[in-house]
Amino acid sequence: MAINEEQVKHVAKLAKLSFSDDELTGFTDQLGKIIDMVEQLGEVDTEGVPFTSNVLETINVMREDVATEGWSRDELMKNVPESEDGFIKVPAIIDNGEAGA
Q1: What is the mean pLDDT of the chain?
Q2: Cβ atoms of 31 and 8 closer than 8 Å
Q3: Global pTM value
Q4: By residue range, what is the domain housing residue 35?
């Protein structure tokens, strides 16, 4: 699947990134190569190959997930620059389904 500069510009806009013309050309080429490699992997015959989720025999070494009492909302909200109805108020990043400029 070929990718063009307009598609790269669209993804960059969604990610709030901006590129020079040279960078745009380079990223278009790199993303095209990545997509080609992924498509090539899709052509590999994996019939009869067992599913592998982890190549190492490991056990969960993390602590048990236990609920504990948290901080009080009032204490946490002391460091918040702006709040509304008990929630942290932040600037909008999506407007009408599009990423902001």
Answers
A1: 87
A2: yes
A3: 0.47
A4: 5-43
